[in-house]
Amino acid sequence: MARxxxxxxALLVSVSxxxxxxxxxxxxxxxRIRELPGQPPNVDFSHYSGYVTVNQARGRALxxxxxxxLNGGPGxxxxxxxxxxxxxxxxxxxxxxxxxxxxxxxxxxxxxxxxESPAGVGFSYSNTTMDLYTGGDAKTALDAYAFxxxxxxxxxxxxxxxxxxxxxxxxxxxVPQLAKLIYEKSKGIQNPAINLKGFxxxxxxxxxxxxxxxxxxxxxxxxxxxxxxxxxxxxxCLFDSxxxxxxxxxxxxxxxxxxxxxxxxxxxxxxxxxxxASLKLGxxxxxxxxxxxYDPCTERYSNIYYNxxxxxxxxxxxxxxxxxxxxxxxxxxxxYWADSPRxxxxxxxxxxxxxxxxxxxxxxxxAVVPITATRYSISALKLPTLMNWYPWYDHGKVGxxxxxxxxxxxxxxxxxxxxxxxxxxxxxxxxxxxxLKDTPMPxx
Amino acid sequence: MARxxxxxxALLVSVSxxxxxxxxxxxxxxxRIRELPGQPPNVDFSHYSGYVTVNQARGRALxxxxxxxLNGGPGxxxxxxxxxxxxxxxxxxxxxxxxxxxxxxxxxxxxxxxxESPAGVGFSYSNTTMDLYTGGDAKTALDAYAFxxxxxxxxxxxxxxxxxxxxxxxxxxxVPQLAKLIYEKSKGIQNPAINLKGFxxxxxxxxxxxxxxxxxxxxxxxxxxxxxxxxxxxxxCLFDSxxxxxxxxxxxxxxxxxxxxxxxxxxxxxxxxxxxASLKLGxxxxxxxxxxxYDPCTERYSNIYYNxxxxxxxxxxxxxxxxxxxxxxxxxxxxYWADSPRxxxxxxxxxxxxxxxxxxxxxxxxAVVPITATRYSISALKLPTLMNWYPWYDHGKVGxxxxxxxxxxxxxxxxxxxxxxxxxxxxxxxxxxxxLKDTPMPxx
Lengths: 444, 444
What we know:
The structure is a homodimer.
Chain A: E1 6-13, H1 26-29, E2 47-53, E3 66-70, H2 79-86, E4 90-92, E5 99-101, E6 111-115, E7 125-126, H3 137-154, E8 162-168, H4 171-186, E9 195-202, H5 208-221, H6 227-237, H7 247-260, H8 283-286, H9 298-305, H10 309-314, H11 331-335, H12 345-353, E10 357-363, H13 371-379, E11 385-394, E12 397-405, E13 408-413, H14 420-423, H15 425-437
Parallel strand pairs in A: 3-6, 3-8, 8-9, 9-10, 10-13
Antiparallel strand pairs in A: 1-2, 1-6, 1-7, 4-5, 11-12, 12-13
Helix pairs in contact in A: 2-9, 3-4, 4-12, 5-6, 5-13, 6-7
């Protein structure tokens, strides 16, 4: 491979501490974020950010799990989505300059590592432009693995620690493939540096046939498309690859999209971002009983914040002067995607047999990778059931539903869209804690 | 029929006027509501309420359509639901004593007549207690027809006017059956007193087989029930009557209910009424951008308000001293329901052929008579399509979807539950106006 340097940016957010800060090894100090521009005063955790070169290569710690978070796309930024509007500790205000704390950040339960993946996404780059046009599942997994190996050299305190991978949407491909690679590389090693224990994926692309089947049924059963388009989608798409559909299938997908109209398919029952949406700002804090209000325009603020020079400096990002602005998703990476296996289910079978913990969750108001797609895909695994479908509870209210299979736990989050921790932050943190403990969701 | 007196209470709300009030004929003055206890000062419409005896029997007007509204159950009150939390002009405050105006009341477009139907529901009563235990579709239609004939004698200014029937839920049975009866009684009459032009039903029980099929699919596709219960429901219920299911079917329905847990099946994505729900009160008015907030506890306030002696006096209700309190739904009437035809579709065919306008609407977040049930039922009519499934718009936002068939228009309301005008009042009024004009929902 005559590929040039591919450098991936990662953001590490460690667990909140009330202990006096321990001194970090000197070689990590270069990655330490002193202060993010606009951050609130009450920050009691450490965070680090920097590049790891995955083709050539190069921590202070708490005794907590390390969790790698990946967003999908393909081509979307884990810093823009995962860190900034989902499971990270900071949310960006509408001014695009200041931050506030997410009180349901997952770093209350684990050390979080956000990776901009693959090269070409967010701040991650390659000096070989051709790399952006030749992205694919296999290279993404190899680079992410190389990243982890090198990153653990820089932050050796995280070696041997329980390690988990989490992700959403097309990361439903990244996560199991990376897990499989780690599993294979560690097989037979007594005490592996990357001590993989399990993974959790949400609204995850999993199996093209069953995902298509469930997605079309979801669109119809949620009243988004006509009877005839429902029929034609099943006729023309079911045996296609989701990343490389046939022209006939694309025609019907476009027809479905025009029938759906100008909705937010990622969250059917919340307001889309528009000119009047900003009226809602800040209500979440002032009127806590309106817990379902959220700001649908967060992406706009990310696009301001992460292009501020002082923010890039604080993040040790864009040190090479990338020729394009930071974006939430790269169109190039997304459009030129090469290999995309049609099913992750063989990997599920393999890793379940190997004792890797697998949890799958689904926000049930997402029309992009909907709950029905996930139900069909998981059902196709034909795993024995340990606990049948049941509602799980949070403060006496139904938080969603769950089914525990032998080797896999499926959890839905009621009323949440594609980005579950954005729409249902408290319920998502409960889910994450139960995943880490590997205990079923609460029945009361 | 040796049945005793059955008296039905009706509430008439006429269209808002800015004209000087015309003098109403003297025989209607007894029904005029001078002032409802707790009503706001700015009331610019007339309303009347009183009993019409349908076994023996015994109006000022504006040039507007007359619309009869019916709630379902069977056994639920059109005053408690339709008038007080859906399409009527007044809503009840949490104190159970004062009222505020519903700015999207359907009396902005037509004169509304709310009928407590059948006898035994709400304030409607029978001196023959056995009547409450022998309710059914046929008697309900006959009594409602007798009511209308007698009521038009008291309010003759509404005779010969364009007349429509509207209703929801089990009124999906009442409405077409009453329409058919009126149609048959008027056939061949040049200028009928009840000048039936059409009907509109929402989240309406329509055809038991297709309703069951669609309801089970909705429960599964919305993540409420297990794969196995979904399978078993289809196996045991599909050929049953919805009002008289078999013990096997009932067993699986109960299983489904326990899997669903403590949710509000009438509106999946809003908060159920509980101790903290009252925190939301009044926000709708003070923070208009929070248009999706609504008060889920309205029924509680109705139960206070309509049992106040001064309210009953103002309504000319309960003049005979009914032995039980006013309730939103009568358990007796609901439990002892006799005849319930399995399908309204033959009546649809008959009335479409007769040129009666039929609109069907569906709030798409109702799990009780869900959108999928309605889609299957309407699809079973096999009507030619004039406009295929398309999103309709309100202020640039998708209000729902619609399909125009030859003789029938289907409209969904996005994000609305079982009581569409409660959850989406503005969109419901738009729908009602388009129904009255018989023009398709707006494409922009």
